[in-house]
C-alpha cells in the first residue's frame, strides 16, 4: 500500500506544474485552476486503465485537464454575474514591474480568446507541443489547429492593442533602455 501511495505522489509531482499552468491559462483564476488540476488527477487515476500505453501519457493528461476546464468554463458562463468588475486596475509600483504587468495583461487577454483557439495556443506555446500532437489531442485536423493558433495570436495581439498595452509596454522598455545608457 505504501508503494502505491509513493507512486501516486511521484506521478502527481511529475505532471502537476503542466496541468496547473494549463488550467490557470484557461481559467485565469488561481483557485479554480487548483481545483481543476486536482479534478484532473482524480480523473486520470480513475481512468488510467483507458490510457493507450503505446502513446505518450502527458498529452492524454493535458487533454483531460483541458476538458475539465472547458466544462468548468461552460458552467461558469451559465452562472449569473453578481456584479461587474474592473478589468484593469492601474498599478503605481513603477517600471520594475512592467514585465509582470504585461504577463498579467496577456493572461487577461487570453481569457477572452475563443476556447478552442486558447487551448491550441497554450498547448503550442506553453507546452511546446507540435501542431500534429495538438491535432491528435484535440481530435481535429492539422490545418484547423494551425488556424486556431494563428487566430489566437491575432486576437491576443488585437486585445492588447485595444487596451493600449503594447504601446505602453514598448514605451516603458524604450524609456528604460534610454535611462540605462
Write the topology of this structure.
Blueprint: H1 2-27, H2 30-46, H3 57-78, H4 98-111, H5 115-125, H6 131-138, H7 142-162, H8 165-180
Helix pairs in contact: 1-2, 1-3, 2-3, 3-6, 4-7, 4-8, 5-7, 6-7
Description:
By secondary structure, this protein is mainly alpha-helical. Helix content is 75%, strand content 0%. The protein contains eight helices and no strands. The chain is globular and about 55 Å long.
Briefly say what this structure is.
The protein is mainly alpha-helical and 181 residues long. 75% of the residues lie in helices and 0% in strands.
Largest sheet: none
Q: Kindly name the structural category.
A: mainly alpha
Distance N terminus to C terminus? Answer: 63 Å
Tally of contiguous helical segments:
8
Question: If you compute it from the alpha carbons, what radius of gyration comes out, rounded to the nearest whole angstrom?
Answer: 19 Å
pLDDT < 50 runs, ≥5 residues: none
What's the SSE pattern?
HHHHHHHH
Shape: globular
What's the rounded overall pLDDT mean?
78
Estimated helix fraction:
over 70%
Record field, number of beta strands:
0
Strand content: under 5%
